[in-house]
Amino acid sequence: MLRFRHLLLTFCAAILCTLSTQAQTRDSKRFAAIENEKIAYITKELNLSQSEAQRFFPIYNQYNKEMWSVKSKKTGSSSAAPAGTNSFNGSGRRDVLSYDAKELEIKKEYRRKFADVIGNSRASQFFEIEQNFRELLYKELKRRNR
After folding, report:
1. Which of 43, 52, 58, 99 has a CB 3.0–4.6 Å from the CB of 74, allowing a cystine?
2. Cβ-Cβ contacts under 8 Å for 70 (sequence gap 6 or more)
3. Residues with Cβ < 8 Å from 82, sequence gap 6 or more?
4. Is residue 28 classed as helix, strand or coil in its secondary structure?
5. What is the pLDDT of residues 87-129, one digit of tens each?
6. From start to end of 54-124, where are the E strands?
7. Rg of the chain on CA atoms, in Å
């Protein structure tokens, strides 16, 4: 009987691991599809030529990685603050403003880098286009949840 219980527990654990792996794969595929849509949207809205896109998107990928890092620290349980800032205010709570300031610094830095590739006007327009894509994504999510 003990051997049967052990076998059953092992079997259940294997099934749970398989299901969680499939869910992660499905989520990563969904995330990749959204990223591809975002890249297509940015390319279309900024009217990027092929050569501009080839130079723009490696910089964009660096920007995206840095922003994800700051945002995950901001929303996560980690108490690590952006470099050069204090993560806690006097009450022991995380200082969200320090993360917002870091996001702004990153945006300013990358606006300059984007401007070298696509010009000042379109570099500034990029952030509005990125926000518009997020809003479209939220609207689509709300529509699907109805």
Report:
1. 99
2. 82, 99, 102, 103, 106
3. 70, 73, 98, 99, 101, 102
4. helix
5. 444 555 677 899 999 999 999 999 999 999 999 999 999 999 9
6. none
7. 21
